[in-house]
Amino acid sequence: MSDFYETGPSKPVTESIRVDKVSPKARRMHNIRAIVVVILAILMLIPILVMTQTAFKTRADVVSVPPTIVFKPSLEGFVFLFTERAIAPPGRIKALQEAAETGDLSLFDRVALNSGQEITGLSDYVGRLTNSLIIAGLSTVFAVVLGLFAAYAFSRFPVAGKDDLMFFILSTRMLPAVVVTIPLFIMYRQLGMHDTHIGMILLYTVFNLSLSVWLLKGFIDEIPIEYEEAALVDGYTRMQAFYKIVLPQAITGIAATAVFCLIFAWNEYAFALMLTSDTARTAPPSIATMLGRGGIEWSAIAAGSLGFLIPVAVVVFLLRNYLLRGVTFGAIRQ
Amino acid sequence: MATIELQKVEKKFGANHAVKPMDLTIADGEFVCLLGPSGCGKTTTLRMISGLEAVTAGKILLNGKNVTWSHPSERDIAFVFQFYALYPHLNVYDNIAFPLRAEGEKKEAVESRVNEVVDILRIEHLLKTKPGKLSGGDKQRVALARALVRRPAAFLMDEPLGALDAELREAMRAEIKQLHVAQNATTVYVTHDQVEAMALGDRIVVMSDAVVQQIGTPAEVYYDPANLFVANFIGSPGMNLIAGKLHDGRVQVAGGVDTIPVPVGYRNTLPAALNGAGDVTIGFRPESAILADDGDIAGEIYAVDMHGSYKLLHINIGNGATSGIVHVRADRMVTFPIGSAVRFSIDPKMMRFFDPQSKQAIQQEVTQ
Q1: Interval A122-137: pLDDT, tens
Q2: Cβ of A237 under 8 Å from any chain B Cβ?
Q3: Which residues in chain A have their CB less than 8 angstroms from residue B81's CB?
Q4: Where do the structural domains in chain B lie, given as residue ranges?
């Protein structure tokens, strides 16, 4: 070790690095930290892994103790997820068994034979997922657009009582959301908004607005007003300056805000459970209450959760760079 | 190109005056510098001309047309900001083309006009670059190109060289001057740097505490400052100001026995202006003092600065009423030990007098 302090590193330093991070000891610590982070990341991904595995397990594999790690994948869970079923009459089972001996069975027939259930129609999973897409998507758009205008106004204009208003907007987040579900339920019933898409979009928009106004105000504050003034003297109107100058520069902030709003609206459970029943029911409460005909169908629930995970994972993946900037906003200049 | 006229223009922020009522007429093709320390109202004045700041009272005429309440985009002016305000999401070409596109120009017209100004400022090689990757000087050139491209009636520049380092500043100053000569565009230029104002301006508007102190050519504000503020602010160091008392046609330097004869031009006006009281402030530039063994004023060397081509002596004349230190220019080859006694006279033609009460300059008689 003393060697290092006399002779320096074995290879010349060709990167930007603080001097106390060059020593072999510091490099070793760095590697240890990296390994710890990777282990933590794996630990956090275990539930996702288990969920994915479960989605492809047969009923027997799901409930086996100890849990099977290696198993023969099956699409049973997905079949259960997308279908409505009824207990098959004994005669039907018998017919299937005979057909099985001749080896002439479709996938659905095999599932019916294995579970003793007969497929009677399509489940409402696709409809619920569509509801989730519509409600989360539109509420995100509204929350971000309205939030953007509000944030711009708060950032640029001398609004009377600006600080108080901003605090008031934030204060809507200070109550646990679930507390207001009963009053909301009664209100929605009276207004005829119970179990409607509009009702849920409105609710999530309002709920996300505080976050969106605060986040976006931070981003717009970062854009120097000189850009707009330059555009004004260059011959543009205020609105044109907003579209051509502010909007392109706020795009990272807008994307980050949109992701946060989308994740909230997509994952929201309590309101959806209370305020929807069928037409506007979103995926989270419907997956959780997905009970099969003979006991809980864990593989179907896991398959449903997996499908539910994909859209938001795709969006977050696409916008991951903006998201990083979103959580560190204010700290880094573009 | 255009004339700009300010008539009793004033600006208040709440109860405080940012700019007290000011009159200013800028001729077509003139380069006017607004000069003053920070917070004196010079930038506010410029922003009022541009329309980015609404006036509290008064009128602004552009080419004789009242534009006081016109939108900035209707005034046909270009504004160069201190930190350039180049749009970071657009490349250099789009930045320069931006004002033209506001007018809905055709693509070919935009292109030829952009190429024209790019040629003038020699930034062809930067067209595809984003502003974030440009050096300070290039950013400034792009900002100037964006201002030039529309052939505006007037240029307004708000400390455009403020963010550059010293060496680049001088080069860009020459470029701006050259550009002004070539384009002959009416320009209003805000700066706190008196060297810049002297170098660039056809006329200088010296401002302080929201008030216009003096409007004049660089030579006028340098040699004939209208008041003590201008005398002190212009020049580096500023004019030497020492207290004195007038009697019998000679001025006695306060706190000493040395007397100076009153110069010819002031023989009548000085007693009249002082109205019997006799207290007066004498002003002279460092280069107007002549070191001589039989000089009128005695002092002691306090410090010596080597400036390359000359030495600047700080001489303590023990004058209690002012700081007591005066600056005098001296030959660079001569050695002046600190603490040694020196005498100097003031070139009578370069001597100025101020009323210490009103702080205003006392006028000379117009001779010949």
Answers
A1: 888 889 999 999 999 9
A2: yes
A3: 226, 229-230
A4: 4-229, 239-354
